[in-house]
Structure formats: structure tokens, C-alpha cells
UniProtKB/TrEMBL annotation:
Homotrimer. Substrate binds at R96, E157. Keywords: Acetylation, Hydrolase, Lyase, Magnesium, Metal-binding, Mitochondrion, Transferase, Transit peptide. It comes from Ignelater luminosus (Cucubano). This is Citramalyl-CoA lyase, mitochondrial. Mitochondrial citramalyl-CoA lyase indirectly involved in the vitamin B12 metabolism. Converts citramalyl-CoA into acetyl-CoA and pyruvate in the C5-dicarboxylate catabolism pathway. The C5-dicarboxylate catabolism pathway is required to detoxify itaconate, a vitamin B12-poisoning metabolite. Also acts as a malate synthase in vitro, converting glyoxylate and acetyl-CoA to malate. Also displays malyl-CoA thioesterase activity. Also acts as a beta-methylmalate synthase in vitro, by mediating conversion of glyoxylate and propionyl-CoA to beta-methylmalate. The lineage of its organism: Eukaryota, Metazoa, Ecdysozoa, Arthropoda, Hexapoda.
């Protein structure tokens, strides 16, 4: 098995490595297989959202809301946040604010992050460069009280953003150490991206293949989830299934959806299959087995080291004793 091949070459007595592996712990992981947008000004749809089995509900202030309804959306979502999570169901309770360049983002953040309850996650659309992350960090630090933090999902939706992507992620990861957010995912905003590069959408999405792959690559390099593009034709469930499975094969961990009917198909596509689960369980078992062996061998190594030290010290003592005895004999001889 692959893992045993790696472990075979690991130095058993490398204490730094041992210390590291001994400390491996299970990370707090929020699944976001389907990330469903719900227009923030539509109370009927918001109520409907709480009844669904969906990993992430994104209460939207951005593109799902008309410009003359922005204020209504902001207030509606703030009221929901004031009341607290509407159900005991486990799901990611998220808000999508307007983009920084729209001039509406600060009002959204102030209204939503000073409510009685914080959302779990903030979705920040149209991030273009690291300065946007710095701005976001500064704003949320002034709104969130105490030691609370929100998770951050960064949207990449333009040519410039795609070029700046590693820089954006590096800044977010570094800032998160001192700021009130933790970056957790990247979203590929394919609709806005197509508009940005002037691409024409086709059935198989070849025109955005490079960008779609680059997003996964950079997300994984920074330990982030990768959330795939929206399938706008929400009545075409067969097409959705094919595109979701393709995204999953590419390494995406989830997909944006706009309609409740899309949820079960997407969540199924991003669930690991039986083969993958078997592989992961095998990997974990092999890891545990090797850990046990290391414990034994490290114990023996330490015992050996102690014995060797003891040996060395007694040899040294005997040598000192002989020298001292010789010197003493010499001293007696000289003085007699
Ligand atoms: C590129 C991007 O940024 S995408 C994000 C921006 N776009 C959006 O947010 C669009 C979100 N989606 C929607 O608004 C809707 O799904 C629409 C307008 C596309 C279709 O809505 P409808 O015509 O109401 O669809 P339909 O009649 O099939 O809905 C069935 C039920 O699901 C509800 N529903 C539909 N979409 C949603 C949703 N996104 N969230 C919650 N509930 C929803 C409807 O209210 C309806 O509920 P009801 O049975 O209690 O009346
Ligand atoms: O925000 C999503 C998009 O596709 O644009
Ligand atoms: Mg967009």
C-alpha cells in the first residue's frame, strides 16, 4: 500500500517527525457540497431554505437581489441573524455580501456582523487583489466583538483575480492568524468570469477549462475547499448531474446551486463513493498500525540509547579509576 511505502523510509527515531505525526488531529470541517443561494429579500424562499437538507445556505445580498431591493435584503437578513439560527439542523449559515467595488459592502458588513448572532460564514464576491482582503480584514475586525471569528469564502470571478489568485490566498491565510476570519474556500464565479474574459458559454464549458482547473489547484495548495460553478439551467437535472460529477473528478469539493431541486443531485455527486471510502479507511488503519510500530521502536531505541550512555559512562569511570590509581602509585614511588 502507498502509505506503507512512505513510512518504510521514515527514520523511526526522528523525534521531530514523531512529534508531528503524534499531534495529527481531526480538523473541524464544514462540508459545503451544495452552496445554495437564497435571495435575501425573499422571505418565502428563506423559510423554504431551512426545511431543506443542504450543506450551506447563502443568504444573498449580491447578484440574486435587484439594486432597488438591496436595503430590504440587508434588513431581512439582519432580522434573521438577530433571531438566531432558525433550526437545529446542521448547516453552514452563510451570508453573501456585495462586492467591495460596488460601494455596498461596508454597509452590508456593518449590518450583518453587528447582529445578535454572527453568521458562520461570509461570502465575499469579486475579490480582485490582496488589497481587497486587507480591506475586508480591517472592516470585520472593527465590527466583530470579542474573540469570535467567521469563516471566509473568497470569490474569484475575473481575469485579474485569476492572475492574482496565489497572492490573494497567501494574504488571507497570513492575515487570518491575527484577524477575525478564517479562509475556508474559493468559489469559481464562472458567470462573471465569462463576462470578464469575453467568453461565450458552451455546453461542455471548454472555454473556461483552464480557469476552472487553476482555481482547484490554488485552492488545494492553500488547504482551501474549491466550490465549482453554477449550473444555471436549473430544470436540466441530467446536465447538472454530469457537470457536478465532472467537477468532483477535477477535485472540487462542492458546487453553487440556485434551486432546491439541484441540492440532492449535487450533494450526491460530491459524496465520496464506496471505493474512495474503502481506500480512506484502509489508509487510516495502515497509519494507526505504523504509529503503534513506531511507538514500540522508539521505546526500544530510547532504551538502547540509555544503555549505551550507561556503558559509555562506566567505561569512562573505569578509565578515570585506572589513571588515578597509576598517578597515585607514581606519587608514592616518587616520595619514597
Ligand atoms: C451567478 C450567481 O451569482 S447565481 C446567484 C444569484 N441567483 C439566484 O440567487 C437565483 C436564486 N434562485 C431563484 O431565485 C429561483 O430558484 C428562481 C427564480 C430561479 C426560480 O424560482 P421559482 O420560479 O419560484 O421556482 P419554483 O417554482 O420551481 O420553486 C419551487 C419552490 O422552491 C422555492 N425556491 C426556489 N428557489 C429557491 C431558492 N434559491 N432558495 C429557496 N427556495 C427556493 C420556491 O419558493 C418554491 O417554493 P414553494 O413551493 O414554497 O412555493
Ligand atoms: O457568482 C457566481 C458567478 O458565477 O458569477
Ligand atoms: Mg458572480
Amino acid at each position: 500500500m502507498f502509505i506503507s511505502k512512505i513510512f518504510k523510509h521514515m527514520p523511526h527515531t526522528n523525534s521531530k517527525f514523531w512529534h508531528f505525526t503524534n499531534k495529527i488531529s481531526v480538523r473541524n470541517y464544514t462540508p459545503r457540497r451544495a452552496l445554495m443561494y437564497v435571495p435575501g429579500d425573499d422571505t418565502r424562499k428563506l423559510k423554504k431554505a431551512w426545511t431543506l437538507n443542504v450543506d450551506c445556505v447563502a443568504m444573498d445580498c449580491e447578484d440574486g437581489v435587484a439594486i432597488n431591493r438591496k436595503e430590504t435584503a440587508r434588513e431581512t437578513i439582519r432580522n434573521i441573524l438577530n433571531e438566531g439560527k432558525p433550526t437545529k439542523k446542521k448547516f453552514d449559515w452563510a451570508v453573501r455580501v456585495n462586492s467591495i467595488d460596488s460601494g455596498l459592502c461596508d454597509d452590508d458588513l456593518r449590518a450583518l456582523l453587528t447582529a445578535e448572532h454572527l453568521p458562520n460564514t461570509v461570502l465575499l464576491p469579486k475579490v480582485e487583489n490582496k488589497e481587497h482582503i486587507l480591506w475586508f480584514s480591517e472592516r470585520i475586525n472593527s465590527y466583530i466583538e470579542n474573540k469570535k471569528k467567521v469563516e471566509l469564502i473568497i470569490f474569484i470571478e475575473s481575469a485579474v483575480a485569476m492572475i492574482n489568485l496565489p497572492d490573494i490566498c497567501r494574504t488571507a491565510v497570513l492575515l487570518s492568524k491575527t484577524s477575525k476570519f478564517v479562509p475556508c474556500a474559493l468559489v469559481f464565479g464562472s458567470d462573471d468570469f465569462c463576462a470578464s474574459i469575453g467568453a461565450t458559454r458552451t455546453e461542455d464549458s471548454k472555454e473556461i477549462l483552464y480557469a476552472r482547473q487553476k482555481l482547484v489547484l490554488v485552492a488545494k495548495a492553500f488547504g482551501l475547499q474549491a466550490i465549482d460553478m453554477v449550473y444555471i439551467a436549473y430544470k436540466d437535472l441530467e446536465g447538472l448531474k454530469l457537470q457536478s460529477e465532472e467537477g468532483s473528478r477535477m477535485g472540487y469539493t462542492g458546487k453553487q446551486v440556485i434551486h432546491p431541486d439541484q441540492v440532492p443531485i449535487v450533494q450526491e455527486a460530491f459524496l465520496p463513493n464506496t471505493k474512495q471510502i474503502e481506500w480512506a479507511v484502509g489508509l487510516l488503519n495502515a497509519f494507526k498500525e505504523h504509529q503503534k510500530k513506531w511507538k514500540r521502536s522508539i521505546y526500544l531505541q530510547r532504551k538502547h540509547d540509555r544503555y549505551a550512555n550507561y556503558e559509555a559512562s562506566t567505561k569512562c569511570d573505569r578509565f578515570n579509576y585506572v589513571i588515578k590509581k597509576l598517578m597515585y602509585t607514581l606519587y608514592i614511588m616518587l616520595h619514597n
